[in-house]
Fold this protein.
Amino acid sequence: MTFEEVYNEYFSYVYNIIYARTLNRAETEDLVSDVFFRAMENYGKFNPKKASVKTWICTIARNRLIDYYRSGNRTRSVLMADDDMKNFPVEDEYSVEQDDINKEVHRILSLLSEEERELISMRFFMDLKNTEIADRLGISSKAVCERFRRLLKKCEGLTDKNTLSELLS
């Protein structure tokens, strides 16, 4: 697989992982660019026997996010009111303002802590199993299950049940 194919196949995936954590479009675009720049620089060192391309690129994205949060040079996402969003121009398919479900997901994610968004990112965007999440966080699989249970209950409290079931389907 050429690097161009990797980029084309995984760009949206990496974008979504990072956006779910930052909730800021400009910062997401900068971070995604940096992830793919780092991946391009190191593509010759990639070993498919150690991990899949998806796992490799997710690891780069996760490490870049860790660096980003450690640096403290980040801005907080500002949740827009619905009236503001109606006049906000939709520039591309990655825009959160594009439909009601995206707006609701953005609203819910903005109310969660960075740690909770990371947990969601690992489970739903990176497709990690509980054991893999547990290894990364240094906790037990049972603790991961309990954190997800509490997190889903919290999300249920942030939206109506119909919208939540639609989001999870």
Remarks:
- The radius of gyration is 17 Å.
- Residues 146 and 162 are 23 Å apart (CA to CA).
- The longest helix spans residues 3-22.
- DSSP finds nine helices and no strands in the chain.
